[in-house]
Design a protein that fits this description.
heterotrimer, A alpha+beta, B alpha/beta, C alpha/beta, B: alpha/beta, Rossmann fold, 9-stranded mixed sheet, two-stranded antiparallel ribbon, 15 strands, 28% helix, C: alpha/beta, 2 domains, 7-stranded parallel sheet, 5-stranded parallel sheet, 25% helix
Chain lengths: 380, 264, 330
């Protein structure tokens, strides 16, 4: 693997050890008790793993998307849902505001996020649809020295768990030609008027606390914004699109784990003195075919991340990685459940959870269909 | 406070069951087994980190071996050490524990002075536990092996050690050599930022010529009072009979065999 | 120079540690091939009369004793001064030291002072025409290396307790010559290490692993609290010693590694060794492969442990513990 060197071997070893010691027990509670893994995320920060795409002046390591990808891949081998939460705690919250805001606006926020001390959430989606910005109802009105925010957001992950939420709200009439009219606000969780609603019972990403947030005359200071007034939506999307590439290592780690577990099972499941692997050519073909697809995906993931390291815009590639990866993870985990027989459907076997989480990746952070269509006019 | 930690690069113990002896030239075949920092030495690095957190100071890691050992020293720097020295020279190669401890003591002399020298109590490959005591002897310092705790008390170090019938506490005047038992601590998870900073920390490769007053009669193969003869694989003298049946049946069989044997 | 074989008599309680008797026995075997040699016990301490008497057993031709106030310690840095001086005064060919907590440290410290060769943790010692070969395990016990000392004297070797056999009874034998070694070197002896305190362990009713006729050993396959409790009950019913592998010790179900069986733990050779859920890694096998009857239960038919066993059962180790316990209780 051309992207590996001795330093990255150390990164993988450190992330693997963290995944085994900290993520595995936390993931068990996520699945079995819907318990949010706050402590494990905090430790990610303490061990410097949340700042791998963040500038040094904000406490990060300086951006290297391959280093970051390797970390996400390792934790995702243990839990796809945890991989998602690690992604949310780093690129989606910190990375996004780093690209959008001035040092005065974001410096402290990022530093506290990188260290694991503070956890953030992002609030875009509304009942009308995350991409249907024209019909967003959440709005902010300037009243003297304060913004007053009213409205509500749905399907917000880290709901009720984050210290601060970054909220997209309308501040002017939305202009579809320029995408102007929306602003990105900084709303501390304990601000009066911030209310948390129902937490969804989802098929996958258990324990990620996805739910509804309401803003009822929430007052925040005039300067509690990221970027410029009215001009949030375009910069947000420009910054956000390449970040979907993180689904690459996330899906990759999970599919590798499912494949490895299944390979071990097939070689050690002995019936009448012969292993399943040795007994059936069809099983061998299935596994080797999947290996090929996974290997291809791995090359695509790290090639895209290297392109990003070299300053290329990988927006379209990122969407492709998100879509292809979700579909491939669904395919691999579906097949591997079957290869295990009845026990494949049993939670303790450890395969079926990846099948459920794979589906989440087709709609998490925006449905793949919408994202692909959004590329029309941008790339196509 | 300056702490030196002696670390050894060893073949990864997870692969030891794959080691075989070449039937033709009777040497060990261990190609392809990755090298790692000896597990016991990681506990020594962790002990040094804890002392540094409590009392301040600098941690230097020292090792001896071929140039590839640089990678293990980079890992030690990533764990939190401040600087590293590697003695890499054919002249010191092929050394037994006495010659190894002599060479290491010369590196300690050159790069010191240190207040404390730590090491793991035994290496995964040789497991002699000789080197720390012998470093102490070469340097005229006090030493203690298999320490279960180490702390600083003014200018002295206090360490505990378990014996067959009880536990003793020792006071060692500084500088001293202490080899730590693995149970002394739990090695902390590695910090990612520290891994990325490790490449900027100083790692110096020394040759025999850099060592002060090196007496060549004590180094390398010729300086080693012990020599290696033949190697043998550990083979079994038993042939196993498998017992079949239900749990109840096989349990009964086991019990009968035990009773038979004890009666004899 | 003479061909004498010295055996360090470490004090445990009020008499020599059990490993002393094992090494005296081995030394007598070696003596057969070293004409003119004497087997000599070595006593170092304060008020050594009782120890000297206890160390004078059949098979010991002489006792060298150094007695000094400063030697009432477990500090190897002080003891090595005495040990090295005794060796220089009397020049034995071989020095055997039990690889106990003290011995494992005193041996290399003394060898360092004498600039002589020391073979660590030998599992056997062979005397041939040309030389004395010490068999030393390496790579976790996977490989045994012959170590010899061609040019320096004495040849030193450390040996773990339980490796060599000792007769069940040791006969006292007052015919051993007692040499009170000149201790003047200790008058000005200074050690940078001081033993500040020693707290004895609380006495325990547990059967000592090394003395047990039957040993029940726990491996990864029984590493739950439930399974271990059942295993303990089984050992109790069988009057067996309880040991465990490193994998088992790593789970934290036991407070320390004191009954771990393996290269860095204890060596046992009971009449009966029952292994539950043990894979048979070299470093464990090294500590039990001299057991008479070995019976192993493991769910993996390819487990290496079966190669070192007389009887094997492929099955759930925890369930077999219960089945056996039931059988024994009846």
């Amino acid at each position: 693997m051309w992207w590996m060197n001795e330093e990255r071997q150390m990164i993988v070893a450190a992330a693997k050890e963290f995944a085994e010691q900290e993520v595995a027990p936390a993931a068990k509670l996520m699945e079995e008790e819907e318990k949010y893994p706050r402590e494990a995320i905090r430790k990610l920060g303490e061990l410097g793993m949340l700042g791998l795409t963040i500038k040094e002046e904000y406490g990060g390591a300086g951006a290297d998307y391959i280093n970051y990808g390797l970390m996400i891949e390792e934790v995702s081998k243990v839990s796809h849902g945890f991989g998602l939460l690690a992604y949310l705690a780093s690129e989606l919250t910190l990375g996004l505001i780093e690209k959008m805001g001035t040092p005065e606006q974001v410096g402290e926020l990022i530093k506290k996020g990188v260290s694991g001390e503070k956890l953030y959430g992002i609030c875009f989606t509304e009942p009308c649809g995350v991409g249907n910005v024209a019909e967003y109802e959440t709005n902010a009105v300037l009243d003297g020295d304060e913004w007053v925010i009213n409205g509500g957001k749905i399907l917000i992950t880290n709901c009720g768990v984050a210290d601060t939420y970054f909220v997209v709200a309308k501040t002017s009439e939305y202009d579809p030609a320029t995408l102007r009219g929306l602003t990105y606000f900084v709303v501390p969780a304990d601000t009066p008027g911030v209310k948390f609603g129902h937490i969804e019972n989802k098929m996958g990403w258990h324990g990620s606390s996805t739910g509804q947030i309401y803003f009822d005359d929430v007052r925040i200071p005039k300067d509690a914004i990221i970027g410029e007034v009215d001009n949030a939506w375009l910069p947000l999307n420009v910054a956000l699109l390449p970040m979907f590439a993180t689904y690459g290592p996330m899906n990759l780690g999970s599919m590798e784990a499912v494949w490895e577990k299944t390979m071990f099972f097939l070689k050690n499941r002995i019936q009448q003195g012969v292993s399943l692997w040795d007994a059936h050519e069809s099983i061998r073909i299935d596994m080797i075919e999947m290996w090929g697809k996974i290997d291809n995906y791995r090359s695509a993931v790290y090639s895209a991340l290297e392109d990003e390291n070299r300053g290329e815009n990988i927006s379209a590639k990122s969407i492709a990685l998100k879509k292809e990866g979700a579909d491939l993870l669904e395919y691999v985990s579906s097949k591997c459940i079957e290869l295990h027989g009845g026990m494949g459907t049993v939670y303790e076997t450890g395969i079926e959870r990846f099948y459920r989480d794979a589906k989440m990746g087709t709609v998490g952070c925006g449905s793949n269909r919408t994202l692909m269509n959004n590329m029309v006019g941008v790339v196509f | 406070m300056r702490i030196a930690v002696c670390v050894k690069s060893v073949p990864d113990p997870d692969y030891y069951d794959q080691i075989i002896i070449d039937p033709v030239n009777k040497t060990l075949k261990r190609a392809g087994i990755p090298a790692v920092i000896n597990a016991s030495d990681k506990h020594a690095i962790e002990a040094a980190l804890q002392l540094k957190e409590k009392h301040g100071g600098e941690i230097t890691v020292i090792s001896m071996g071929p140039p590839a050992v640089e990678q293990q020293l980079r890992e030690a720097l990533a764990m939190g050490a401040d600087e590293a020295f590697l003695l890499s020279d054919r002249k010191v190669g092929g050394a037994d524990t006495l010659a190894t401890s002599y060479a290491l003591s010369k590196v300690i002399e050159k790069t010191g002075p240190y207040d404390l020298i730590l090491a793991g109590n035994e290496s995964a490959d040789g497991a002699t536990s000789h080197v720390p005591s012998q470093i102490g002897e070469w340097l005229g310092m006090g030493s203690l092996c298999s320490a279960l705790s180490v702390d600083m008390d003014g200018v002295n170090f206090i360490a505990t050690k378990k014996f067959e019938n009880g536990t003793a506490q020792f006071c060692l005047s500084s500088p001293c050599v202490i080899a730590v038992n693995q149970r002394i601590n739990k090695v902390r998870l590695t910090n990612m930022m520290a891994i990325l900073k490790a490449k900027k920390k100083p790692l110096t490769v020394l040759s025999a010529a850099d060592l002060p007053d090196l007496d060549e009669q004590y180094i390398g193969l010729s300086g080693s009072p012990t020599q290696n003869g033949e190697l043998h694989m550990v083979e079994s003298t038993k042939s196993c009979t498998m017992l079949e049946g239900t749990e109840e049946e096989t349990a009964a069989m086991i019990y009968d065999k035990i009773k038979q044997f004890i009666r004899e | 120079m003479n061909r004498d074989i010295w055996v360090f008599a470490e004090k445990l309680g009020n008499s020599p540690a059990p490993v002393y008797y094992e090494l005296v026995c081995k030394a007598n075997e070696m003596k057969q091939k070293m004409p003119g040699s004497k087997v000599c016990g070595v006593v170092i301490g304060k008020d050594t009369d009782d120890m000297v008497r206890a160390a004078s057993i059949r098979g010991v031709d002489a006792i060298y004793a150094m007695d000094h106030d400063r030697l009432d310690t477990l500090d190897a840095c002080m003891l090595k001064i005495a040990f090295a001086d005794m060796v220089r005064q009397y020049d034995p060919e071989v020095v055997l030291v039990g690889a106990t907590a003290l011995g494992s440290e005193l041996a290399p410290a003394t060898a360092g002072k004498l600039k002589t060769g020391l073979a660590a943790h030998c599992v056997d010692i062979e005397v041939t025409e040309e030389r004395i070969n010490c068999m030393v395990p390496a790579f976790g016990g996977r490989v045994i290396s012959e170590i010899y000392v061609p040019n320096t004297r004495p040849v030193m070797a450390s040996v773990r307790p339980g490796i060599f056999d000792a007769p069940a009874e040791h006969e006292a034998d007052s015919a051993a010559e007692v040499i009170c070694v000149d201790n003047s070197i200790m008058n000005d002896a200074v050690s940078p290490v001081a033993m500040v305190s020693f707290v004895e362990d609380a006495p325990t009713n547990d059967i000592k692993l090394e003395d047990a006729e039957i040993v029940v050993c726990a491996g990864r396959g029984v590493s739950t609290q439930e399974a271990f409790d059942k295993l303990r009950a089984l050992a109790d019913k069988l009057d067996a010693g309880i040991g465990y592998t490193r994998s088992f010790a790593d789970t934290g179900l036991v407070p320390d590694e004191s009954n771990m069986i393996g290269t860095s733990g204890k060596s046992v050779k009971p009449k009966v060794f029952l292994g539950f859920g043990i894979s048979g890694a070299a470093h464990h096998v090294c500590g039990m492969n001299k057991s008479d009857l070995v019976i192993t239960v493991n769910k993996d038919p390819k487990a290496k442990m079966f190669q070192f066993s007389d009887y094997g059962i492929v099955g759930d180790a925890a369930k077999m513990v219960c089945a056996l316990l039931e059988k024994v209780e009846k």
